[in-house]
Amino acid sequence: MKEILAINGGEKTVNENFVWPVYDETDVNAVAEVVRSGKWGNPDCEDLVAKFEKEFAEMCGTKYALTCVNGSVALRLALIACGVKPGDEVIVPPYTFIATTSIVLEANCVPVFVDIEPDTYNINPVGIEKAITEKTKAIIPVHFAGQSCNMDAIMAISKKYNLKVIEDACHAHGAEYKGMKLGSIGDVGCFSFQSSKNLTSGEGGIITTNDEKLYDMMNSLRNVGRVKGGQWYEHHNLGCNYRITQMQAVLLSNQLKRLGEQTQRRHNNGTYLNSLLEKIDGITPLARGLGETLHSYHIYIFKYDKSKFNNLPKVEFSKMLAAEGVPCFMGYPQPLYKQPLFLEKNFMCYAIPSEVDYSKVCCPVAEKACYEEAVWIFQNTMLGEKEDMDKFAEAITKIQKAVLS
Ligand SMILES: *Cc1c(COP(=O)(O)O)cnc(C)c1O
């Protein structure tokens, strides 16, 4: 018998309340202690910031880690420190958060969009190689949803053409590719601590690298152009104040203790949910087994085929699934090059060559993902129990039965 869908007043399939952020009294006390100490930030004290940077670098397996105000600024400082010049081209995917590409414009460089792979939604290395010109200086692969990009292929291309690789690891704290932490493979790795991310202090970011020169430059840019050994009012580079506070750092240190266990839990639940959803006609989880030894599932993504759901559009399906109690969302409504920012070239004071025309860009895989296919389930649900995953699959089956009958 067909059940009444929750969207039509029936019972919800999932009744769990998935919390985020996760915290307890140890977080509260750690922050309270800093508040009481009166040592909140630069210039008198940055010991807790330095401590967290050391801990994050250790977790990530890099020599250096440098905090900053957010993930966008992390990417911005990384790109500028890589030595790009106005008019240089930077290869980016179209299926990502706007910051991956807007920071390229802010560096007076040209974002060049390369389509994603249909089975992972990560940037396609074959497309990268085709897009390289004399002006190409860097690639920003995004480990989308926490699934590693094909880093062997991307690093090989970067060596062949002498390009910098900036990993956008804003979805990938603690995730791995062939046993290496994401953010430790390219020249620089960038992470966000914004409130939705897998490690958070409300806002914040961090940059990882093994390259001392890049580290020194990014440190200077973060710190108003000051340099090691220089005077307080001595400014060498065009930077700004992008530092975080001691309250953020101490919270991050405490949160970091949970990251390993949480990442493993998301990985396990995501893997289990794949095994359930791949049995449903018209639902395809993204591909696995492509080197991602640990998937951080910042987003759990599956592909939806409306032809198996009586042609119910994805947007309607996502709403029905959310009503069933599965925290989910249709994802990006369009690839980035379709945003007014790019179509209208509202680039403010930044100097992009006039011949650049984003209305001509077409990345069919990203378009299909946005318009038809991709459904996102939020990361905190992946911290749930195995039974919750069973319920998610049940909710999808319930919708399918209802729309087909
Ligand atoms: C969140 C995010 C960013 C930017 O991070 P903020 O801290 O919000 O500035 C960049 N890239 C991706 C893929 C993100 O998800």
UniProtKB/TrEMBL annotation:
<dbReference type="InterPro" id="IPR015421">
    <property type="entry name" value="PyrdxlP-dep_Trfase_major"/>
</dbReference>
<dbReference type="Pfam" id="PF01041">
    <property type="entry name" value="DegT_DnrJ_EryC1"/>
</dbReference>
<dbReference type="GO" id="GO:0000271">
    <property type="term" value="P:polysaccharide biosynthetic process"/>
</dbReference>
<keyword id="KW-0808">Transferase</keyword>
<dbReference type="InterPro" id="IPR015424">
    <property type="entry name" value="PyrdxlP-dep_Trfase"/>
</dbReference>
<protein>
    <submittedName>
        <fullName>DegT/DnrJ/EryC1/StrS family aminotransferase</fullName>
    </submittedName>
</protein>
<dbReference type="GO" id="GO:0008483">
    <property type="term" value="F:transaminase activity"/>
</dbReference>
<dbReference type="GO" id="GO:0030170">
    <property type="term" value="F:pyridoxal phosphate binding"/>
</dbReference>
<feature type="modified residue" description="N6-(pyridoxal phosphate)lysine">
    <location>
        <position position="197"/>
    </location>
</feature>
<dbReference type="InterPro" id="IPR015422">
    <property type="entry name" value="PyrdxlP-dep_Trfase_small"/>
</dbReference>
<keyword id="KW-0032">Aminotransferase</keyword>
<dbReference type="InterPro" id="IPR000653">
    <property type="entry name" value="DegT/StrS_aminotransferase"/>
</dbReference>
<feature type="active site" description="Proton acceptor">
    <location>
        <position position="197"/>
    </location>
</feature>
<keyword id="KW-0663">Pyridoxal phosphate</keyword>
<comment type="similarity">
    <text>Belongs to the DegT/DnrJ/EryC1 family.</text>
</comment>
